[in-house]
Design a protein that fits this description.
By secondary structure, this protein is of the alpha/beta class. It is built from 10 helices and 15 strands. The protein starts with 9 loop residues before the first strand and ends with a helix. Pfam families: Peptidase_S78.
């Protein structure tokens, strides 16, 4: 059967809105496992075959919102009538039927929140108690009475003993803290009825500011330390490079070994200094060679002069100057 036109998705739950029982439901904590296998749509939470008016599809969580699209059983005249009212905009509300455990109802920042629950059905309702109505059930599927819900919800609020009181806790400004939390926030002790929420919030905001200030200070120190380290590394490399360049000029090391010696100087300036000190300087090649004015050939006076020549220069000298060569070799 093709799906009928859908005006808009229905909002099953909005965790930012508190229901008339005095608590909100965390959307992320809603278990859809059972519901996804049987996404039944009831009329006003009446759990009977005759009150099944359709099913839900495209059920999804989007941040704080849980939504779904209706698929009405238009073969049923009652369902078709309700579908028509929805399409024409006369009905636009729904209500979840959920099962939950007492341990998942807790107080956070002065607000009662249901952190986990199981969705079993979603009903079309004419007038919800708020923007997102809810029907609470026992594990066996039996609806909970309103007084049961009030007593259960009130039981998680510190200092509340009278279940007949209105559950709206907007004006309840007390909170009970653990000893460790008291110490962490800097409280010496707490009254038997709890601390003022405003005092706790002030402490938390104060600590938050301290953390932010320390974070900024730490980041500044880290930047300064990095800048100093980079400057020190640059100075060390420069000093090593200058020493190696001088050693190359002096003939102590070949130019193709420059990078290796620079790295040695960066790793240990003392080792580089000691290593270069042990390498003797080589005599300048041109010191013992004189250039003749005639053909520009080098003048060789001693065997030392001859040995300083390249192999090709030695052959040329021997061929061009046989007499001088004999004198040198004796």
């Amino acid at each position: 059967m093709s799906k009928p036109p859908v005006i808009k998705p229905f909002v099953f739950n909005d965790e930012t809105i508190e229901n008339t029982y005095g608590f909100s439901i965390l959307t992320e904590g809603i278990d859809l496992t059972r519901f996804s296998k049987n996404p039944v749509m009831l009329s006003d939470h009446w759990n009977s075959n005759w009150n099944v008016i359709g099913k839900w599809f495209d059920v999804k969580k989007d941040g704080s919102i849980l939504t779904g699209l209706p698929d009405f059983d238009t073969e049923d005249k009652d369902a078709a009538a309700i579908s028509g009212k929805v399409e024409r905009g006369y009905i636009n509300a729904c209500s979840m039927g959920i099962i939950f455990d007492r341990e998942n109802l807790t107080v956070v920042a002065g607000k009662v929140i249901l952190t986990k629950c199981e969705l079993v059905e979603v009903s079309i309702v004419p007038v919800p108690s708020n923007a997102n109505a809810v029907r609470l059930m026992h594990a066996d599927g039996k609806p909970m009475e309103e007084k049961e819900i009030q007593e259960l919800s009130l039981s998680v609020i510190p200092g509340i003993k009278n279940p007949e009181l209105n559950l709206n806790i907007d004006n309840m400004k007390k909170i009970i803290l653990s000893v460790a939390t008291l110490m962490a926030l800097g409280f010496k002790d707490q009254p038997t009825d709890g601390l003022d929420v405003s005092d706790v919030e002030a402490k938390v905001l104060g600590l938050s500011k301290q953390v932010n200030d320390l974070t900024v200070k730490n980041e500044a120190l880290e930047l300064a330390a990095k800048t100093a380290k980079d400057a020190q590394e640059a100075a060390t490399k420069l000093a090593a490079t200058q020493k190696v360049d001088l050693a190359i000029t002096q003939g102590k090391i070949p130019a193709d070994k420059k990078e290796a010696f620079v790295q040695l100087g960066i790793t240990s300036p003392e080792v580089l200094e000691a290593t270069l000190a042990m390498i003797p300087e080589k005599q300048n090649f041109s010191a013992g060679v004189k250039t003749l004015t005639g053909n520009g050939a080098p003048e060789v006076k001693t065997m030392e002069d001859f040995q300083k020549l390249s192999f090709d220069a030695q052959l040329a000298f021997k061929n061009d100057n046989p007499e001088e060569y004999k004198k040198i070799v004796g």
